[in-house]
Structure formats: C-alpha cells, structure tokens
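Hi L.,

You mentioned the student needs an example of a multi-chain input paired with its predicted structure. This one should do, with 858 residues in total across all chains.
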Amino acid sequence: MSVEGALAVHRFGLGARPGEIEAASRDPKGWLVAQIGTPAEQPLAPDGTAFPGSGFLVRQEQEMIAARRAAKAGDTEIQKSQAGGRLRIFTDEMAGRFQLGFATQRPFAEHLVWFWSNHFTVSTTAGRTLNFAGAFEREAIRPYIADTFENMLLAVASHPAMLVYLNNVASIGPNSRAGTRTGKGRNENLGRELMELYSLGVDGGYTQTDVIALANILTGWSLDPQAPSGFGFFPNRHEPGPQILRGRRYNDDLRSGIQAVRDLAHDPHTAHHIATKFATYFIADQPSPQSVARLENVFNKTGGNLKALATAAVEDPAAWTPAPAKMRSPVEYVTAAYRLLDLPRGDNAAQQIRAAMGSARNMGEFPMTASSPNGWPLVSDAWTGPDAVLNRIEWAKQVGARMPPDFNAAAVAGAGMGPLLAPATRTAMARAESQGDALALLIASPEFQRR
Amino acid sequence: MQFDRRVFLKSAGAAGVAAAFDAKAHFAFAATPDDRRLVVVILRGALDGLAAVPPHGDKDYAGVRGTLALQTEGAGAIHDLDGFFGLNPALTNLKALYDSRQLVVFHNICSPYRDRSHFDGQNVLEAGGTSPHLLQDGWLNRALAPMGLANGDGALAIAQMPPLMLSGKVQTASWMPAVLPAPDELFLAQVRALYAGDAVLEASLSSVLALQASAQGAMDDPAAKGMQPGKGGAYGNLVPLFQGAGKLLAAPHGPRVATLEASGWDTHVAQGVADGQLARRLAALDTAIDALRVAMGTDAWNKTAVVMATEFGRTVRPNGSGGTDHGTGGAAFLFGGAVAGGSVKAEWTGLGQGALKDGRDQPARTDLRALFKGVLADQMGVSGAALETRIFPDSAAAPPIKGLIRV
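Structure written out for the whole complex:
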C-alpha cells in the first residue's frame, strides 16, 4: 500500500472499501483515470429496478394535480397522500444515491457526479422539485461526466427539475401571446443563475441587461407531459423578437436559445469559473493560481471536455501532497465510514442506508437540499465549526457502539487508512476500552475527517 | 426540543468536567458597557421590504404592487405604524414591540452593494466592505475587540459554523440544538488528545465544550422541554434556535454578542399576500423573535438590541409569476429593550416610476453600515475611531445613526 494509492482512494475517491488502497497502489493515477471514461453508474430503486424518467414523472405530476382538482373541496386526505408520495419519490432516489456511494467500484466517477450535481444545484427547498430532483442528477449529470461542459449545461438548463426549481416554468415573455393575454411576465431567476452560478461566474462581466436577455431567451422552456424527456418549448409563451446577449444576437426560437446556452459554455469566463471550483473541490481549499491555470487551459483547449478536466486534476502534482487538503463534507464523511466498514451488511440494509442519510442530514448536509442555488460549500471551513465537530464525534461514538464484539478495529484501520493512519490514532485505538471505542476514535480522528 | 441533551456536563459532574477539559469552563467576563447584548439576525435570500413594511400611505403603493398589495382594512389588514408605513399582518410581535417603543423600522436601506447576486450581496453585508470579497473577515468579529470581547468566547453563532459576519481573528463559539446522545467525558478526552496536533478541530472542540459548561444551567428549563416545534416548513424551525440564543445570552457569564440566521426569503414565485408563503415565513420569524425575548427574561432583554437585515431588497412590481425579483433598497429592523423605538426611519422618495432605481427597485437612501455603526457605538460602546478604520473601512459617507439606543 503506497501513500499515493491511499491518497487516490481518499482524496479523489470516496474513502477506502476493503482492498481498495491495495488495488489503487499499483498505479494510482491509472486507477483513477480508468474510472471516468464513460457515463457514471445509475442508482437503482429499492426493489432493484431503474427509476422512472422525467417524461413519466412530469405526466405523473400532472395526474396528481388533476386528481387534486377533481377531489371534493376540503378533502385533505388526497393532499396528504400526495405529499407523502412526493417525499417517498425523493427519499427512494436519495437512498439509491447513498447506496451507490457506499458500494461503487468507480468512486472517482461518483465523486465527480457529486461535484457537478452540487455545481448545478437543484434543491427540494422548492417543494415541487421533490418529484424531479433525483431524475435531474440521473439525466442531466451522470450521463455527462466524461462528455463536454456544453452538453451538461444544456441538459441542466432544459431539465424539468431546473425549470421548476429556478421558476422558469413561470416565466412568460411579456409580449408573447400568453403574456399579452394573461398579463403575466418574465421571471429572471434561471437567466441570472445560469450565468452567475452555473457558467460565467459572478465576475463574468454580464449585466442586468444580459440577465433580462437570457431570461427572455429562456421563456417558453417548460414542462411537457407529452415529451419523453418531460421538456417542451412553448412558442406562445416565448418572448418575440431577437435578443442581444453579451453582444451576440439570438433569434426568438428554440434553436437559437440552445445556441445561446452553448455559447455561455464556451465563454472564457466559464473556463475560469469552472476550473476554480473544480480545483477548490478536488485539490485544495485555496488552490494555487498554477493549479487553476492548468485546469483552465485544459478546459479551453479541449472545448470543455470534462474527462480531460478531471484527468488534468489527477495529473496536478499539487493534488498529491500527503497532508490532507480538505475536510470531508458530512455526506463524504458518512460515505467514507460506510465504505470503511463495508456497510450496509446483513438483512436490514435499507434501514442502515436510512440511518446514514439521517446522520448526514444531522451533520448539516443532504444532497439536493441546499438552502440556495449556490449549493453546498466547497471549502473545509464550512464543516469545522464547534457544533459540527462535536456532532461528528457523537456520531463516531454511535457507529462504534453498534459494532459486533468480535470486531477488529485495528485491522479495519490498517486496511482503510493504510499509510495515512496517524501514529497517535493507532496508539489511542490500542488503548481504547473497547473495539467499538477504538473504531469511534478512528472515525473521529483528524485524518479520517479529512481527505 | 432537545436542549437537555447536550448538557452532558451536568450529568457528568461539573467538577470532573472542569478537570478534564480545563481552560475555558466559562466565558470571558463580559466587558461591554452595563453588560449589554447585541444580536444580529441575517435574513438570507433578500427579504421583500415592501411586503414586510408596506408603505400603505404612499399614493402609488396599491397600484405599483398590484396583486401583491396588502389591504388596510378587514382580515389580513396591515398593522399601521405611523399612518404611512405599516407592518405585514404576520408580524404581530414586532407590532407589539413597536407599540412599546422597542422597535425602529428602516426603509430604503441597503448595504453599499448595488448588483443583484445573493452571494456577493451577503458577502458585503457580512464583511462590511464596499464591494464583494474586499475583506476576508466579518465586521462583527472586528468589532469584538473594541467591545472588550477579544478574549474567549464572548460571541456566539447559532449555527454549526459561524457566518462570515462573525468570523475572523477573534475566536467565537457556535451552538445548535442537536439530536444525538452525548458521548461520555472519557471518550471526549481521548478524542481531544487526538486533536492536539490539529489546530482547527482542537479549537472547535474546546469551544463547544466550554460553551456547554457555561450553558448547563440555562438549558435546564422545564418550559423549554414542553415547547412544540412550530411549522418551519422546508426552511426549518426557527424557534429552538432563537430560544437557545436567548437562554445563552441571558446567562450571567454567557456570550454578549450573537448571530442568528433565517433563510427562505428569495420569493421569486407566488409569494402571496396576507396569507401566502412569505407571510407564513414572516410569521415563523415573528414567533421566533418573541421566543428570543421570552427566553432572555426582562433583565437581559432590557440590555439588548437586535438588528435584523437582509442582503438587498426586491423589485417593487410583482414579476410575471406572482413573486418579486432581486432588487436594491429594502427594509431593516432594530428592536430590543435597549432600543429607543417607536418610529420608522426612511428617506422616502415615493414609488413612482421616476423614483425607482433602474426603473424597478426601491432606491438605497440609507446605508446599512450607518445603522450598524450607530448600534455598535451607542449600544456596545465602540469608539468612532474603531468604527471608521477597522470595522467599516471607507464608510465616512455613512456616519453612525444617532439616537437609536436608550441611554
């Protein structure tokens, strides 16, 4: 087991499953790059089947709305049962996602999914996104981790979850047929965040006029229950007339709108914004300008090829400093512990997955529930507050307490941390009053909380 | 409520704990003048100032707000304040504070930030610079030393991690009501030894343990245990957070400065009027504010000023989907037993098209820094020199607002 092998598994991967550090140590960079040449794996529903696509989910939502309208006034039962149904869709999707994180043999690919899914945040804080949030990651993120940024951005911008989350479904061209008939108008939310957060970055040199232009361009991008993708373009809601976005002119049709999104993906500001976030997430809280420049150059040269971007990060010498560079986020932390212990195991796997989900939430993070479209923070500071640290220690203690009596914590630590295990942790574990406490000390240790 | 759960120190025995965790078993003694308290509530997401503080006396109000205009009569009527401004009907506790002259409302107020990004706007609000990312620490942290709170955990964030406003060189504490049972002190001592070489984790663990030692009595309140969480929806319930802050602030040697945060104000769609989602969110905030007041008790409350601000306002007119988009000027609030209240302070220029910034936003006629500076000076005894140089650099154009605090 080499230090580089352990770093590959912990920093780029999701923490070591049994035997993983040994496998990675033979060729750490090769082990990582071999994982990311194809679309990411897809999570499965609790019954082992594939989750339904957005087209189905959009139709299903429409049926739910129709059923509610048909119900008698004052019938609160149907509302309750539908709310429960929406929550179940989301919880099942997230259980599938956690399980994939625990079990995957391609942890770097999965980690890339988490990065991109958080970059393009869709959050269930807007309740209607509960139905579509899981599908968002499956349809707009996972297929594209080895594709181009342009294709991912377009998939994101036209996905039902995003159109609902950032209110584009309610955005109507003020001079469109629907706008003049109803008096309703434009909603700037998606137009703004598509530039500020998802592509150019807040310093990307766009103006309020550009925000309005892009919002106009996106009017009429909405949900279509008839379409297999769930997406539809509705000309009667689309703002008529050409729009000037960042000095370029776009006609008032879907094709031009798609081109506008593609052009944003190729803007040099986008390359810088994405390179900075990618380096911050995978390399260091404050990546060096050289690290950012390397990624930015690769992004520009390859036209935003995302496999090339990830490979460039792997090949950056700065990514291989033995000292841990990042604090694990709660989801990363819980996942690393489950991988370490080869959980879930036994006949109550579903319950163990639910327990992990609840723990991550208690520690302050849960996928697709960020409080704003900015997503979960990328830097370590976000997870090292006094209360957060105590939460982790408490959780570590609980995990230790649940281990069977014949459990061998030292063996788990050796296999799971390899050369990264600190002597102080090894000593403390040897002195612990039980195997459970020894494991708890490992999980609470600084080196396990970091990557 | 799980207040009792984190107070493991009590069951472990305070003396044993003090031995095990040494150093900071209590806070630095408050050195603020007359033991005064300052609370800052950050409203993340850009609160709609015209919904919270409707200027019902403005001739253009009803017209320009259209479907979002609140009514002055009947069910869901505005709480009138001064015949011109009012409060959203959901803000009943704030109305009571106004009537007892403990609330000042500000309008057409904003930080120096003039673009419309939440994240940059919050950065300016919290760092106290003139533009985003100019300063790396928060203005409230820079104000702690001039308040005499430089040593130890005199300031508290009700959060897992202190927000930027309270982050910086001076160490601060953070606290949240939590859900897991506490580990025993022996185990914590073992973990703490592991953290000896990790400055960040060591500081955080020491801080939270010291806070709990200090707070143990404050949390053991039968009234708190019986409290049912209200309806906070997806944004979480604010009452335990505000109540916890109140109890910690009331403790004799507890923190004297605290930050609280409430999000969910980014109402782009169907924000509603007197009974919609924004009104429900305002009601939750209003309830939490009262929980803070009650938890503090009369003595502490009378020494307290609470300032509540958001990163910017929202558009004056409704957007196409029954909500409002990012704007500029908005509302802010100052309340507490120490506040010389009962007034609305606004350089009001009307809601006619010509008065609006960029034809869409409320203008920013008062600088939020002037409010913060006035409170820091008169409530917390911060010197003018510190305010103008370290705490709010380049803020000469925003002199402290005077007369906000009862002397």
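You could point out the following to them. The mean pLDDT of chain B is 84. The first strand of chain B starts at residue 37 and ends at 44.

Best wishes,
N.
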